[in-house]
Write a structure and sequence with these properties.
282 residues; alpha+beta; 8 helices; 13 strands; 28% helix
Length: 282
């Protein structure tokens, strides 16, 4: 492969990655790159042919034992020529020794299995305009999550994600153009959800909640902020209550991936996971 090299992405390159993801129909958040780059600045790789970017992958490290792979793309006109597979090997080497997760599109899942990944659940994106009627259960109030002490939010996030990710979570919750709501009852966190604008449907993720009623109240309140724009939630079928809630809210499936790991499925609170945070970083 003459003139092909692999480099670490720049901050500006992440804008390009978002454009490529948009072209694939993934509908990334308009400001996701700020949280992504803060999480692991060396975790985004770009393959360049004669200096021009032709492929990309994100291989983000969390803690000492977890990693997440995403943004695996090659420019359509150059696929099948080995540029993506060479970048894949470099990315996997960066995460060597870790339990690696990814959210794989249907077409790529057989290839991921050949690389040692196995499916643990299916994630379906549900989209639409939910009713604004769902209200929080008695005694539960919805507050701006940015007003709460960050350590409480980070501890709560650890119930649903297999590693500490403070450097990701802080800009994800408080970044520009985002709306973050927490459900609180008796002084304790009972739910958390974040809405971010995208080019088409606004995305809501994560959605954590102690019950479907709390999750529905969070989604309804976030959607009410811009009732003319549809919302999208990536719902894991490992939580049947989350699937039922999406259907009850009148949302329809539009896109499917599989959560896959190279090692055992992490021990997280699936019953409270109503929407995953990000297809790219977990």
């Amino acid at each position: 492969m003459p003139n092909f090299e692999i480099t670490t992405a720049s901050a500006d390159d992440l804008t390009m990655l978002a454009e490529w993801a948009h072209a694939e129909g993934w509908n990334p958040g308009l400001t996701d790159r700020h949280a992504f780059f803060a999480t692991d600045p060396r975790g985004f790789l770009v393959g360049r042919l004669g200096g021009d970017p032709v492929s990309c992958v994100s291989v983000v490290r969390y803690g000492s034992g977890h990693g997440f792979l995403g943004f695996y793309l090659t420019r359509p006109e150059l696929r099948g020529q080995g540029y993506g597979s060479r970048l894949w090997r470099a990315g996997m080497a960066r995460l060597d020794g870790r339990n690696i997760g990814l959210d794989g599109v249907v077409a790529q899942q057989p290839n991921y299995r050949k690389s040692g990944f196995r499916s643990v659940w299916t994630t379906r994106r549900y989209e639409g305009r939910p009713p604004t009627g769902p209200t929080a259960p008695p005694g539960t109030v919805l507050v701006d999550a940015r007003t709460l002490p960050f350590d409480r939010l980070a501890d709560y996030d650890r119930r649903f994600f297999p590693a500490e990710r403070d450097s990701f979570l802080a800009p994800w919750i408080a970044g520009p153009t985002r709306t973050s709501l927490a459900a609180v009852r008796d002084g304790e966190l009972r739910g958390l959800a974040v809405l971010r604008p995208c080019r088409t449907s606004s995305r809501i993720g994560p959605v954590y909640a102690e019950s479907p009623e709390v999750a529905g109240a969070l989604v309804g309140a976030l959607a009410a902020g811009d009732p003319d724009t549809a919302v999208a939630i990536d719902v894991p079928d490992v939580n049947p209550a989350a699937v039922r809630l999406a259907q009850q809210l009148g949302l329809t499936p539009s896109f499917e991936t599989a959560r896959m790991y190279t090692g055992p499925s992490p021990d997280v609170d699936h019953s409270g996971l109503f929407g995953i945070t990000s297809l790219e970083l977990g």
